[in-house]
Design a protein that fits this description.
about 240 residues, alpha/beta, 3 domains, four-stranded parallel beta sheet, 10 helices, about 10% strand
């Protein structure tokens, strides 16, 4: 895994990909930790737009943010809500997802699908550069303070609201609240995601009202004792 090999690989993928590429650094799962200098070089590629760093190495995250500031910038269309906006996203909507039944017809037993009311989506353009995202839930607030764009968090699979509240408090410049919200998920996030892994996250999703299901073989499901521990950890983090 020489530097030349890694650079060649990611550049080759990005040259041919119809979608923008996001790097993923997770050394606990693969025997390679992408060096900061390699990330900085890849950030210059016009089709490599960011990285999710799940190393948990906060000093390295800070160094990555600093090293990629000179990456290329681009203009993107954004919305204030999580809503499909580009023509490609809109074309991918499942067939029939737009069916709409008027409320007045429900009481009469009539269920005729009609076109839903069309509301314009408010959009704006924004200039962005290479975006660094943390994969460590316990470091989200610190990462945002250091200049990260956000996070892609395993813990958000079972507790999305708790994770979002950290970001929202930080965005509102309420640092005491952001720190309080951050501290609230540190221990549950470490135990459920880092220690119990996929099986722990899946059960936590089930417990919190989502669908987790069983982990695929060769992973084993969590034990009865571990289930009770997860339930205790999430007792104050329900969605």
């Amino acid at each position: 895994m020489s530097s030349a090999a890694v650079l060649h690989y990611f550049r080759s993928v990005a040259d041919r990909s119809p979608l923008p590429v996001v790097l993923y650094n997770i050394p606990r799962c693969v025997p390679y930790d992408i060096p900061v200098e390699i990330i900085a070089e890849l950030a210059q590629h016009p089709n490599i737009i960011g990285i999710k760093d799940s190393s948990g190495d906060f000093p390295k995250l800070v160094a990555t943010i600093a090293a990629t500031q000179a990456g290329g910038r681009r203009t993107v269309t954004v919305t204030p809500i999580f809503e499909a906006v580009t023509s490609r996203m809109l074309a991918a909507q499942p067939e029939g997802s737009g069916s709409f039944i008027a409320a007045g017809n429900l009481g009469e037993g009539i269920a005729v699908a009609t076109a839903p009311p069309v509301a314009p989506i408010k959009t704006r353009t924004k200039e962005v550069g290479f975006q660094v995202l943390t994969g460590a839930a316990g470091q989200l607030h610190a990462a945002l303070e250091a200049g990260a764009s956000g996070g892609i968090l395993g813990f958000a699979a079972c507790a999305p609201q708790a994770c979002y509240e950290i970001y929202q408090a930080w965005k509102d410049h309420d640092q005491p609240l952001a720190k309080e919200k951050q501290q609230r998920i540190v221990a549950p996030g470490k135990r459920i995601v880092a220690d119990l892994g996929i099986s722990g996250v899946k059960y936590a999703c089930d417990f919190n009202g989502y669908y987790g299901g069983r982990a695929r073989s060769p992973l084993l499901p969590v034990t009865a004792d571990e289930k009770r521990e997860i339930e205790t950890l999430l007792a104050e983090i329900r969605n």
